[in-house]
Amino acid sequence: MLHMKPGGEPMTFTKTIFAAATAVALIASSASADSWRAWNIHNDGHPNTGAMDKFAELIDAATGGEITLDVFHGGVLGSQPDALEQVRIGAIEVGNFNLGPIGPMVKEANLVSLPFIFKSVPHMFRVLEGEAGQTVAAAMGEAGVLPLAWFDAGARSFYSQKKIETPADVEGLKIRVMNNNLYTSMISAMGGNPSPMAFSEVQQALKTGVVDGAENNFPSFKNVGHYEVTTHYSLSEHLIIPECICVNTTKFNALSAEMQAAVRGAAEEAALFQRELWSVDSEQARVDVEAAGIKVNEIADKGPFQSAMDSVYADYLAANPDMKALVAMAQATE
Q1: pLDDT digit string (tens) for 99-115?
Q2: Cα–Cα distance between 324 and 108 in angstroms, integer?
Q3: 156-240+295-332 sits in which CATH class?
Q4: Positive or negative, the Cα torsion across 114, 115, 119, 124?
Q5: Is the sign of the CA dihedral 290, 295, 301, 306 positive or negative?
Q6: Number of H-type helices and E-type strands within the chain
Q7: Angle CA(81)–CA(198)–CA(187) in degrees, nearest 5?
Q8: Is the separation of the CB atoms in 43 and 73 below 8 Å?
Q9: Are the C-beta atoms of 90 and 124 separated by less than 8 Å?
Q10: On the CB side of 271, how many CA atoms lie within 13 Å of its CA?
Q11: What share of the chain is helix, strand, coil (3-state, %, to 5)?
């Protein structure tokens, strides 16, 4: 039997079958494309927002369009605890999470919340990209939230009305910290008075003297205006808590080895892009607050601060003895 093309030219039965098969293949290919959603709490202009958009571009290219990623910024899919649970159960495939709130769910993630566990931001990345990081990642993966790459979230340092160069300089000061036993213990161990309070209350508390100081990274210090009510920023870098690109473990494990490599590679490239953006943003924030009159002091020797944490570590490891090996592993990383 002959079929006719438009214009009257005959089309053979074989050509008809080939055309139909090609159409079916294209439809099947389109149907097999996997559409993922990603959560990001940050808004436009933040380094993580640009990096997550970059990840979406990279994952599409790396998988040949077999996986597409729609990133929802500004926390529109819920708060971090909500999004963390949604990624864990697979309702959302990907999330950009800070490791701090993951600690209650995965104790190994608490490693990054130990004061002065890292010597610097580069040291933090060496730890997380080494054996200790593999242990943390495996534990997170078992909980359903598998980290594919690590983002820079800066280092938290002290700011107050005086220069802080040694633990003795903290003695007697009321310092606002996040509401976490490790952080309050850190201040107490240096003879200070920890003052947990809502972040939104810190500006007024600094202005009125309810607290003498607080701690955060340069971009946050600048963006929320805390530099307007303090005079000194001391680079203690006591907490270096990274963020991650995390994926639902079951979803990731269902991919072929080739697709897993493509997705992980896209995440790692996006993370390098994020770190560049963060570095530029952080350096500019430092320039801006110094121009506004803030005196920034480096702390050449953090040894005394680390020694002051002996009691904090002793109490923590007594309560969590199964963390001893992981902590030792991080401390031994050069």
Answers
A1: 988 988 999 999 999 99
A2: 11
A3: alpha beta
A4: positive
A5: negative
A6: 13, 13
A7: 100
A8: yes
A9: no
A10: 22
A11: 55, 20, 30
Looking at the chain, which runs of residues are DSSP E strands?
3-4, 10-11, 34-39, 67-72, 94-98, 145-151, 156-160, 174-175, 193-194, 213-216, 232-239, 243-248, 295-298
pLDDT digits (tens, 9 = 90+) for 187-209: 999 999 999 998 889 999 999 99
DSSP codes joined into one string, 220-239:
HHHHTTGGGG-SEEEEEEEE
Third-level CATH fold of 34-153+241-284: D-Maltodextrin-Binding Protein; domain 2 (3.40.190)
Instruction: Please report, to the nearest 10 degrees, the dihedral formed by the alpha carbons of residues 214, 219, 225, 227 taken in order.
Output: 60
| Domains in the chain: boundaries | 34-153+241-284, 156-240+295-332
Tokens standing for 130?
């080494």
| pTM metric for this prediction | 0.84
**261, two tokens:** 């490599």
Structure tokens at 127: 């730890």
195, 176 Cβ separation under 8 angstroms: yes
| Cα–Cα distance, 323 to 319 (Å, whole number) | 9
In what side-by-side order are the strands of the sheet with 34-39? 67-72, 34-39, 94-98, 243-248, 145-151
